[in-house]
Amino acid sequence: MVNGLMENGGYAMDLGKKRLFLLDLDGTVYLEETLLPGAAAFFRWAAESGAHVRYLTNNSSRGVEAGLEKMHRLGVPARREEFLTAVEAAIYYLRTRRKAGEAYYVVGTESFCSQLRQAGIDVRCTPDADVAAVLVGFDTELCYQKVEDACRLLFRGADFLATNPDLACPTLYGFMPDCGAICRLIVSAVGREPVYIGKPDPTMIRLALEQTGCAAEEALMVGDRLYTDIACGRNAGVDTVLVLTGEATAADAAASATPPTLICRDMAELLARIQEAQS
Question: Among residues 21, 122, 183, 255, which is most buried (max CB within 10 A)?
Fold first, then answer.
């Protein structure tokens, strides 16, 4: 590193110019009820320096209010407007890319379904004949009946949508199946792939840039997954940092078609590099 410039892949990233930090949550900021190393210090630094923070999560199992309450419980002074979730991305997609008034069979938590209904989306709990599409989320309330109903509708010709392709959600004991794994179960039966709405689609990052007035070169996407977090940043044209506290390893990054701009052990190392670049 020279004067805050990080060399990677033949180009330089100036961490000293970053003022919008786009953070994944699970595996990046926390694991279950535990803040990961450096996260608390990073948020203190962001508040003191006036940096913008946005939380970009593909987790559709809970709403923004639940996520906000969790962050406060962990001691993070997050604000509601700082959250951009897979639920909001799904609502935005259904409103802008689908026909008005369509009905959806949702494989998701009651929280997810409730948020969709509050946004005016026609959510069905049975495989009705007029269902236009199956929408799969990270369903921690999954039962086999939902899987069977989804397959029944997809064989009838319903469209196949999903909030995110994440295969595993990190936990303190290891990992649990995420939305992408649930989709793999359905894909193996019906032979069809879903259209994924959340990361790596760049919509959430574009919304964050619009909200904060920051340019792409002033933003930094930080996450633990190459095929969602890092790919999302690359798709949006922003620099990326892979932290090794969740799913991906340094070896995974070296072999990836979507390598990060920078690899850090955790948020603590990232903060140290930012502070050095700004000194």
Answer: 183
Q: What is the CATH number of the domain that holds 37?
A: 3.40.50.1000
Q: Tokens for 207?
A: 């919304």
Q: Report the alpha-carbon distance of residue 119 to residue 272 in Å, rounded.
A: 41
| pTM of the complete model | 0.81
Amino acid at 215: A
* Helix orientation angle between 86-97 and 203-212, rounded to the nearest 10 degrees: 100
Amino acid at 162: A
From CA 157, how far away is CA 210, in angstroms rounded? 37
For 218-245, the pLDDT digits (tens) are: 999 999 999 999 999 999 999 999 999 9
| Residue 60: C-alpha distances to residues 44, 245, 274 (Å) | 27, 21, 31
Last residue of a domain, one of 175, 196, 217: 196
Residue 81 placed within a domain:
no
Number of CB atoms found within 10 A of residue 63's CB: 19
- Cα(243)–Cα(60) distance, integer angstroms: 22
Q: Does residue 68 lie within any of the structural domains?
A: no
| Judgement on whether residues 163 and 253 belong to the same structural domain of the protein | no
pLDDT per residue as tens digits for the range 31-47: 999 999 999 999 999 99
